[in-house]
Amino acid sequence: MSLEAKEGEYGFYWVFTILNADGTPKDLTGYTVQLRVQREGENTDHFKKACEVIDEVNGKCRYLVEDGDFTEGVYDAELVLTATGVVERTKSFKIYIRKL
């Protein structure tokens, strides 16, 4: 999976469906979800921000892209799922931000 946007674009949602290893939707009841982003090749977070869970039982959440989130470049990202005593991560994916 990868995502794309143009530099300076914001105010839209990226919608995610989180799946279990067997391909079924992950039940997100009791979880919070964050989008964790790093510039490609760097080890420090560019940001880690909350996603809104929009359909717990079917593993759906969304992230509202905000002004200033991204500049041109390639980013590595993952979703971090947290519940009481549990932290899980999705497979990482790329975000490509192109010049306008």
How would you describe what is shown here?
The structure is a single chain. By secondary structure, this protein is mainly beta. The relative contact order is 0.34. 0% of the residues lie in helices and 53% in strands. The mean pLDDT is 96. The protein is built from no helices and eight strands. Strands 1, 2, 3, 4, 5, 6, 7 and 8 form an eight-stranded mixed sheet that branches. The chain has a single domain (2-98), classed as Immunoglobulin-like (Sandwich). The chain has strands at residues 2-6, 13-17, 32-39, 47-55, 60-64, 73-83, 86-89, 93-98.
User: Order of SSEs, N→C?
Assistant: EEEEEEEE
* Mean pLDDT value: 96
Shape: globular
Question: In the CATH hierarchy, what is the architecture at level 2?
Answer: Sandwich
The count of helical stretches stands at 0
Features:
mainly beta, 100 residues, Immunoglobulin-like
Summarize the structure.
By secondary structure, this protein is mainly beta.
Write the layout of secondary structure elements.
Elements: E1 2-6, E2 13-17, E3 32-39, E4 47-55, E5 60-64, E6 73-83, E7 86-89, E8 93-98
Parallel strand pairs: 1-8
Antiparallel strand pairs: 2-5, 3-4, 3-6, 4-5, 6-7, 6-8
